[in-house]
Design brief:
Helix 3 runs antiparallel to helix 13. The protein is of the alpha/beta class. Bound molecules: 2-acetamido-2-deoxy-beta-D-glucopyranose (3 copies).
Length: 718
């Protein structure tokens, strides 16, 4: 789900990344890319915010009337009709796959690195880390992949799986994931996807709610499943991806009630005894994708085949000259729409997909054995997807490295960067000239080799990317960035900055919240998305579905995102708020918690902040995790004696210093008086995903924070 762009742009979730608290950050390698990439796996909820690229001189927003309701719409003016399929006949993912495999039969399709060696390395504090020595990519051609998929599809039925019951895939991103998925699609079987990093309760809930009878997982998950087997009521078969040739060696006591087989055993079963395929139809449910919410249990979003092919069709034209020559590095979670959409696009285009992981991406990644090569170096991808947090981290890493080197390197980098920036802002002629080549060779080439040196475009989604980071990556990597917006509910939304073919967005007034499409100078309101990519609703949850999905009299399906947006004069839509984060105070003023948090988190003393407003009062309060470093520096300068950091946080001088500082920031951000927290509480301990106070994407979890700090909040209002 979305978030006000402000909270990302001003990024408390980036700022408060506490390296020392996340063990995976230990190996903070050259240019920080390691750290950068790790974030990728920490982002389960993406994409969430739409921030369409600005286009000079092109106006895309137009006032419209939909269902008699005055609205404001954006859609591609050139095309009269929404795009539904990438090509004629590719009406479902199963059809698309079969046809693409025929067209591209001899091309490389799925690549996996062979494990040459493994070793355990101990860190100074005694913890052990696994290091891998990985070899070259080994490839399956489109033809090979098609054969394996067909065999698996047959084998699954031979194993006794009933077509009408669900299969779940619970695994990290890898080639077998896609093979299993397409195998199920070939027999019109709905697949449930669950993030590999999802907690135990969420896993059990998802499997139980969808009554999954066959679970596909990695062999490393078997032990975990054994421990929770008594709570998995409907499972009959477990199919595991073999690693280390570790099979069911008898140590898994409880699992004996299930049929446990490896993927290759299932494929053999199908090869011996083929079953005719039963391809699905366009409106059939392809996936039930569980998205982790910031509150409560995850919700399953029902995605049709039509939704996926529509998104695929829309993204293809966004990547110039996409085709068989392209090599895509896949490492983000496939259980997320963004990655699945990207891989579907590569499949449709006949491109090669090489699998990697966030922990092995670059030569300095934490799981890569010293002296051996990371995924990007070996694969030399031309295309890569990323989330803004990754790109921001790459940027920070490069900046840090440059700062450390200092002297000539720093000066040279700055001159090069500024020259390139001026060129980009001025004319494209200058940008592609001789000077660019020179700077590329002297300065940027080294940075580019981090990701293999061949990247020609990056796709970015999940949250709006700051203009700074976009420019930085653009210049340093020499590749444009296509930004995408979408939600699981709109199957990634299919809006890669230049393209909104499958969906139309419009705003509807939200009078209560004080946002109207008649607002001047920019129309504002809740963003509503319509089109072929709008999914079928929430699994077994008709109430929630009816609340946020509507069908108009022309049969067009709309999804009410809950995001508040405004249209810029050039048609660029910007997310400015989130409906549920708006509270009406006692005297009737509305306060947008997200907006206030985003503004105040730019204060240098603040690492993390949650603003809270009790509707029975006329002021708001805030819980703040202060920046220890900045605060201790201030205390030293101000001559304030304190025992330890918690003690410093409790001192009245400290509280008043932070409050003054907040007021200044609030004023410069034009917050109104009621939006400035009247009272604050400073909390010394950082909020981490492990503590359950922020999501894995480091967004604050309001409900959990409210519960945990109930007493503190009460005191602030007493
Ligand atoms: C599983 O689902 C059933 C309904 O299908 C429900 O009665 C039961 O409580 C659920 N069990 C768990 C462990 O969630
Ligand atoms: C088997 O299940 C029981 C009860 O669910 C659990 O206590 C036990 O630890 C499990 N055994 C193993 C080997 O995980
Ligand atoms: C696919 O399966 C669904 C649900 O099991 C069923 O309603 C539909 O008719 C099937 N489609 C085809 C083309 O057989």
């Amino acid at each position: 789900m979305g978030d006000p762009s402000g909270s990302f742009l001003n990024s408390p979730w980036i700022k408060n990344l506490n390296f020392s608290n996340l063990s995976i950050w230990k190996d903070y390698g050259e240019y920080g890319v390691v750290a950068a990439i790790v974030i990728g796996i920490l982002i389960p909820v993406l994409p969430s915010v739409w921030f369409m690229g600005k286009k000079r001189g092109k106006v895309r927003g137009v006032p419209v009337e939909v269902s008699g309701e005055a609205g404001y719409a954006v859609r591609n003016a050139k095309k009269k009709q929404l795009v539904e399929v990438p090509w004629k006949g590719a009406t479902t993912m199963a059809h698309l796959f079969e046809q693409s495999c025929k067209k591209n039969s001899k091309n490389q399709f799925l690549g996996t690195r062979k494990i040459i060696g493994k070793e355990l390395v101990s860190s100074t504090d005694g913890r052990q880390f696994e290091k891998l020595h990985l070899g070259d990519y080994e490839w399956l051609s489109y033809e090979d992949a098609f054969a394996r998929v067909s065999n698996f599809a047959s084998g699954l039925l031979k194993l006794g799986h009933n077509r009408d019951s669900h299969v779940a895939i619970f695994s990290d991103t890898r080639a077998e994931w896609l093979i299993a998925l397409q195998g199920c699609f070939r027999q019109n079987i709905t697949v449930v996807t669950i993030y590999a990093s999802l907690g135990e309760d969420a896993l059990i809930h998802s499997l139980n709610e969808t009554q999954v009878s066959t679970l596909i997982c990695e062999s490393k998950q078997l032990t975990k499943l054994d421990a929770i087997s008594s709570r998995l009521t409907f499972i009959q078969n477990i199919i595991y991806f073999e690693d280390d040739n570790k099979a069911n060696d008898g140590s898994l006591g409880n699992l004996s009630k299930w049929t446990i087989v490896s993927l290759s055993e299932v494929e053999k079963l199908g090869e011996k005894d083929p079953v005719n395929p039963s391809l699905p139809s366009k409106d059939g449910i392809a996936l039930v994708m569980y998205t982790s919410g910031s509150t409560g249990l995850p919700k399953g979003v029902m995605i049709t085949h039509g939704n996926i092919v529509a998104t695929t069709a829309a993204v293809i034209p966004v990547i110039p000259n996409l085709g068989r020559k392209d090599v895509y590095l896949a490492y983000l979670p496939l259980a997320h729409v963004f990655e699945l959409a990207a891989e579907s696009v590569m499949l449709a285009a006949g491109a090669a997909i090489g699998y990697g992981s966030p922990l092995t991406l670059t030569d300095t990644s934490s799981k890569i054995k010293k002296g051996t090569k990371g995924d990007a170096t070996v694969l030399k991808p031309t295309l890569l997807t990323a989330v803004p947090a990754i790109l921001d981290r790459i940027r920070d890493g490069v900046v840090k490295k440059v700062e450390e080197k200092g002297g000539l390197v720093k000066n040279l980098f700055q001159v090069a960067y500024n020259r390139r920036l001026a060129a980009i802002k001025g004319s494209w002629l200058g940008a592609w000239g001789l000077e660019k080549m020179m700077w590329d060779i002297i300065v940027f080439k080294k940075i580019r080799t981090l990701l293999g040196g061949q990247i020609r475009m990056m796709l970015c989604g999940g949250a709006p990317l700051s203009a700074d980071s976009q420019q930085f990556i653009n210049i340093c990597m020499g590749a444009p960035i296509g930004q995408g917006y979408g939600l699981t509910e709109t199957f990634a939304g299919a809006t890669f900055s230049e393209c909104d073919d499958t969906s139309v967005g419009r705003l509807v007034s939200w009078e209560q919240g004080g946002y109207k499409t008649s607002d001047k100078p920019m129309p504002r309101g809740e963003i509503v998305v319509g089109g072929f990519s709008v999914t079928a609703g929430y699994f077994k949850n008709p109430e929630k579905t009816d609340e946020v999905y509507k069908v108009d009299e022309k049969g067009m399906r709309w999804f009410y995102t809950g995001d508040i947006g405004r249209f810029h004069p050039d048609g660029c839509l910007e997310i400015i708020d989130r409906k549920k984060d708006i509270v009406k105070l006692q005297h009737g003023e509305y306060i947008s918690l997200g907006k206030v948090e985003a503004a105040l988190s730019t204060c240098s003393l603040v690492d993390n902040i949650m603003v809270y407003a009790d509707p029975f009062h006329n002021y708001c309060v805030a819980l703040i995790v202060p920046s220890q470093q900045t605060l201790e520096k201030w205390a030293q300068e101000a001559g304030i004696a304190y025992k330890d950091f918690p003690d410093l946080c409790d001192k009245s001088e400290t509280i008043s210093e932070v409050q003054q500082s907040l007021s200044k920031v609030a004023k410069s951000n034009k917050l109104s008086k009621t939006e400035i927290p009247a009272k604050i509480k400073l909390l010394p301990d950082p909020w981490t995903p492990e503590s359950g106070l922020v999501t894995a994407a480091l967004k604050i979890k309001r409900e959990q924070l409210k519960a945990k700090f109930k007493d503190e909040l009460e005191k602030l209002y007493s």
